[in-house]
Amino acid sequence: MAKSGRAAPSAATTAAKALQDGLVVASHGRHCIVETPSGERLICHPRGKKSQAVVGDRVRWQPSEDEGTIEQVLPRRNLFYRQDEIRTKSFAANLDHVLILIAAEPEFSEHQLARALIAAEAERIAPIIALNKSDLIEPFERAWARLAPYRRMHHGVLPLSLKASAEADHASLMKLLAGKCTLVLGPSGSGKSTLTNLLVPGADVLTQEISQALNSGKHTTTSTTWYWIDEARSTGLIDSPGFQEFGLNHIAPMQLAGLMPDIAEHAGDCKFYNCTHLHEPGCGVIANVETAEAPGAISASRYRIYGELFAELSQKRY
Ligand SMILES: Nc1nc2c(ncn2[C@@H]2O[C@H](COP(=O)(O)OP(=O)(O)OP(=O)(O)O)[C@@H](O)[C@H]2O)c(=O)[nH]1
Ligand SMILES: [Zn+2]
């Protein structure tokens, strides 16, 4: 396979039958850009529904003319996706981390954050929460306080100021991301492009080239894109739009507690094995929710989100 990546257009016909290895580094609609083991990139189309690939997928492909056809998507370690009533949107596959970037400003939605964390947990992908714009002192303090329950969970919350302390932030991010593949998600304005450009100088230019290639010249940045942070191509960063309306229809209501670590921690202490933690007597979760009178391990806002999501996910099933 040593020369498998060098399928130049003219060589395509002779090499036609051999399947080659590749990594999907961008996708838009049904088209993908596939990177060969030697680092060359070409546009590929899926053979059929079964070979519909997403960024991060390892595929087997075949050259055709100056493009390629994806014949096979290799088994995935995980797939990060959201699902609402109408459709499923896959973000990326084979991830080590989902980095959720929020900021002191604009104010983040705790619901959206909780949903993204649940989706990551469901696919056993380690989440990292980073709070950007620590230079905006007061809004940052407010946001940091709102994140108290999240600072106690997972790997905590990483404070950043991508503009004011870029060098220090670069170092702390690289400690977490080196050698891994990470999907960056976050609401508009949180600093995703700033982060990508800090870790991958020139990323914005590359993005434009890729989206132009995939959209036959139209200027758009709506595609999901993979970047290599290092020259050795061992650390991957994936940028993806679409943090809003993070649908969790693929998750059953009774699964929910197990996917919220602070709630899961007390869900084993309930009197009933099939406790919904909404109203049952002897519920270990309810007993640990903080109230105005008594502190508790589960914050009131997290428990409220649990209840709302439980109701939302119950409506969608019979
Ligand atoms: N004060 C402050 N502003 C920042 C910081 N990091 C980024 N910004 C600014 O926040 C704004 C949004 O940053 P972007 O990197 O474009 O955010 P984004 O998440 O890519 O936004 P979308 O493209 O809308 O999704 C820009 O004006 C940045 O200059 C920071 O650490 N502190
Ligand atoms: Zn319970």
Tell me which CATH architecture of the largest domain applies here: 3-Layer(aba) Sandwich
Strand line-up of the largest beta sheet: 1-2-3-5-4
Bound molecules: guanosine-5'-triphosphate, zinc ion
CATH H-level superfamily title of the largest domain:
P-loop containing nucleotide triphosphate hydrolases
Largest sheet at a glance?
5 strands, mixed, barrel
Number of alpha- plus pi-helical segments: 8
The low-confidence parts are: 1-7
Q: Report the portion of residues in β strands.
A: 15-25%
N-to-C terminal Cα separation, in Å?
51 Å
Helix fraction bin: 10-25%
Task: From the 3D structure, determine the CATH topology of the largest domain.
Answer: Rossmann fold
CATH class of the largest domain: Alpha Beta
Mean pLDDT: 89
Number of strands: 13
Return Rg in Å.
Answer: 22 Å
* Number of structurally distinct domains: 3
Could you state the oligomeric state of the chains shown?
single chain
Question: How would you describe the overall organization of this protein?
Answer:
With 318 residues, the chain is α/β, with parallel strands linked by helices. The protein folds into 3 domains: 70 residues, Beta Barrel (OB fold (Dihydrolipoamide Acetyltransferase, E2P)), CATH 2.40.50; 161 residues, P-loop containing nucleotide triphosphate hydrolases (Rossmann fold), CATH 3.40.50.300; 63 residues, Probable gtpase engc, domain 3 (Ribonucleotide Reductase Protein R1, domain 1). It contains 8 helices and 13 strands. A 5-stranded mixed beta barrel has the order 1-2-3-5-4. Helix 1 links the parallel strand 8 and strand 9. The protein is globular and about 70 Å long. Zinc ion binds next to loops. One of its GO terms (molecular function) is GTPase activity. Keywords: Cytoplasm, GTP-binding, Hydrolase, Metal-binding, Nucleotide-binding, Ribosome biogenesis, RNA-binding, rRNA-binding, Zinc.
